[in-house]
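Annotated sample (chain length 202).
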Amino acid sequence: MSSAAHHVGALAGGIKGIAKSGMTSQEEFFKSLVLEHQEMVVNTCYRFVFNREDAEDLAQEVFIEVYRSLDQFREEAKLSTWIYRIAVSKSLDHLRRMKRKKRFGSLKRLIGAEDPAEDIAAPSYDTPSETLVEKERSLVLQKALDTLPDSQKTAFLLSKQDGYSNQEIADILKTSVSAVESLVHRAKKNLHEKLYAYYANQ
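Output written by the structure step:
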């Protein structure tokens, strides 16, 4: 069984622990939501955190919140938009926690303790040389993305990585299409400048 499939199984198995008695239809509906949206949620989280295990853990958190909040869902937005809005929020919260840990790690280095920051995992590739090259590119891109404001980073990832339309992104972020266009444009400009500066010095 794959890691992602294991996480989905854990979610499905944990439903009974979350659900109130006599809500079988809601449990079944939730299971269908997990099966339909889990891959996209994991991928969306991964775009932010660059770590498959963290992305799968975040997806679990997303679907737990989805289940607990189903009765609060308002049909002004599509259900998928609501789910991915939660995924984006969970991912950004995770990144903020990681930034706090890194700041704490820097403080510990100053007083002579070990830095607890973990290496960022990269996707697997066919050969060791490909792995090294792609890992470097992934780390460079992540560092550049991490310098962007949350709003620019989110709009850029949803647009260029996940393929959402500007209208869909506007719905997810609860903003206007023109604001999304501006955010994506500024993110592209900032990333271009940062990546150009990095590779020009190589």
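Annotation: The chain has two domains: 1-121, 122-202.
Annotation: The CA atoms of residues 30 and 67 lie 7 Å apart.
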